[in-house]
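Now for a typical sample entry:
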Amino acid sequence: MKEAEITVIGAGPAGLSAAIEAAKYGANVEIIDENALPGGQLFKQIHKFFGSKEHYAGTRGYDIGRKLLSEAENLKVVIKLNTVAFGVFDKNKIGLFDQKDILISKPKKIIIATGASENPLAFPGWTLPGVMGAGAVQTMINIHRVLPGKKVLMVGAGNVGLIVSYQLLQAGADVVAIVEAMPKIGGYFVHAAKVLRMGVPILTSHTIIEAKGEKEVESATIAALDQNWNLIKGSEKELDVDLICIAVGLKPEADLCRMLNCEFTYVPFLGGRIPLHNEDMETTIPGVYVAGDVSGVEEASVAIEEGRIAGISAAESLGYISEEESEKERMKCKNRLKAFRIGPFGSPRQEGKNKVFEEYKRRTKNVK
C-alpha cells in the first residue's frame, strides 16, 4: 500500500474535514482513530445544527457525520479504525497499535484532531456507580439506546449539560434538577428554554456536595453558594436520584502535541492549555497541524472549518495547491468562522484565538 503523505489523527468533524480538503487536491491521506466507528461526537448529536447552509444548519449531527464520512470514502481516504496512535517520534514517525500489531506510519505531514476530554469533579461519593460524565451518558442513550438512570441530577448548565438534559428527557428520564455553580446559565438560552419548558429547574449558584448510596447512587445532596463560592449553611437539600451526570467542561486532548514538543499557551475560555498555532492551523513544529477541540474547545461547526483550513494548508505545503488558491480557500473558511465568534458567547473565543495567534508569532519570530 502506498505510504500516506498526510496522516490525520482523529476521525471526528475536524479530522474528517481536514482529510476531505487535502484529498480533494490530490494528497494521499489516511485517518487514524481509536474508536470502532468514525465521526467522533457527531454520531451522538441528535439535535439540529445552527448557522448557515455551509454549517449544515437544520441538519442533525449524525447526518452530518454520515455525509462527511461518505465524502471522505469517495475521495479514497484510508480510514483506519480501532487503531491507537500511542506516540509520535522524530517529528513524523507515528506509533500505531491496531489491536494486533504495532505499526509505524511515516507521513510527510501530520494533522492532530484528537478532540477533548471531560473535566472530572470530585466530591464525597463521586466513585459510586451512577456518577457519570455527560459524554458517557450521551453515548449510552444516543448510540447504544440504554438509559443509565431514571432520576437524574445534571451538574453543569453549559451547552453540554443543557443538551444532554434535554436528550435524557427525550429518552424518558426524569431530570430532577440542573445545578450550576456559576451565578448564571453558561449555555445558549435556546437550549435552556427547552428544559425549562419541560419543568426542569436550573439552580444557579448551586453545587453538588455529596452522592449517597450503599452500592450505587441513591441520592445527591446539593447546596447553594454565596458570591465568594462558599457553601451557604442550611441550604442543603437531598434529591432522590439514581444518576448524577457531570458536565463541567472539556479540556483539549493534546498529549501527542506534547510528545512532539509543540509549544503551549493557556486560554481559560478555550479549555485551558492548548498548542500554539497560527491562523493556518500549523503548530510551532513545522508540518504539524491541529484542528478542532484540541486547538481550543468550541463547537462542531468550528471544528469543521478549522479542519478544512488545516487540510488546505497541508495540501499547499506538499505542492498540491498554489499559495494564491489556498489563501483564497482558507479565507472562505475564516470568514465563516467569524460568524461563530461574535456576540457574548463567541467574542471571548475570538479574543482567545487572537491571543494564540499573537503568541505564536512572537515565539516563532526568530525561529522560522
Observations:
- The mean pLDDT is 92.
